[in-house]
Amino acid sequence: MNRPHTVLAALIVAAMIIPQSLFASSGGAPLPQEDWRFRGIFGQFDTKALKRGAKVASEVCLGCHSIKYIKFDALRAFGFSEAEIDKMAAAQGRTKKDRMLSAMEPAAAKESFNVVPPDLSLITKARKGYEDYVFGILVGYVKPEEMELVKRVMADDKLTEEELKEVASRLSLDAHHPEKVKETLARIIKGDQFNRYFPGNFFAMPQPLSAGQVEYTDGTENTLPQMARDVVTFLAWAAEPTAPERKSTGHMVLLYLVVLTAMLYAVKKRIWSRVH
């Protein structure tokens, strides 16, 4: 093997063995490491999680974002009834045959956020960290108890080193740069959107999810992390909706190859057993 091929092979192996969660974007905290059971050649999507995630996407995400490569009627694969699909589509001013486009026009989004919210069809494939990145963004905003701490700390004219370290630790900031920490806290108090996992920590999107925001009917607790996991599962499916069928076919092909290999080995042994 020549040197370019050796280097290429090494890079491919490295990409396979390095955990995806280590690809945290520059400037953000290390991404959370979730157990996504649909990953890998034997991974399978949880239909109930997909249904919950589609509900979150429809009721929350489509307010600003689109999932333009998926049509509403594709959601029947998760167990939605025709009436439920019609209702979800109608809430966006569309029919079940339409694509899942945002109810907000791009011009209005640009005016509100100073940027057009990205389409979410391939978002779990388009960012370093993949599903972990999207999950991190959804759960990485300042929590109410953290906001109280920030307010209390910033109200103190004489900010101690211990207080600085505590708030920096809670927000995943680098306490070795106190001036930068203070600047970040000032922006949080001002109302800028802080997210510990986003590069640079500030961006235009307000926190989209909150506990209890979407009603679940299957008995699952609708906490913020649960809703985030569910909608990320749905977005992972939306990025590759043929994955379940492809994996199923792949499993059958692998089984066929195993059986064929065994048969060929048995035939080979039988034929060559006569040769001394």
Describe this structure in words.
Helix content is about 50%, strand content about 5%. The longest helix has 30 residues. The chain is built from 11 helices and 2 strands. The protein folds into 2 domains: about 170 residues, Cytochrome c-like domain (Cytochrome Bc1 Complex, Chain D, domain 2); about 35 residues. It is extended and about 95 Å long. Helix 6 packs antiparallel against helix 10 and helix 7 crosses helix 9. The chain has a two-stranded antiparallel sheet. By secondary structure, it is mostly helical. The N terminus is likely disordered.
Secondary-structure topology with pairs:
Layout (H helix, E strand, L loop, with lengths): L2 H15 L29 H13 L7 E5 L10 H10 L7 E2 L5 H8 L9 H4 L4 H9 L4 H12 L5 H10 L7 H13 L33 H16 L3 H30 L4
Antiparallel strand pairs: 1-2
* Global Rg: 24 Å
Task: Describe the global form.
Answer: extended
Structural class: mainly alpha
Q: Might you state the CATH topology name of the largest domain?
A: Cytochrome Bc1 Complex, Chain D, domain 2
Pattern of helices and strands:
HHEHEHHHHHHHH
Number of helices: 11
- The CATH C-level name of the largest domain is Mainly Alpha
Query: Which oligomerization state do the chains in this entry correspond to?
Result: single chain
Q: Average pLDDT, to the nearest integer?
A: 86
Main β-sheet description:
2 strands, antiparallel
Uncertain spans: 1-26
| Gross CATH architecture of the largest domain | Orthogonal Bundle
How would you summarize this macromolecular structure in one to three sentences?
By secondary structure, the chain is mainly α. The chain is built from eleven helices and two strands, in the order ααβαβαααααααα.
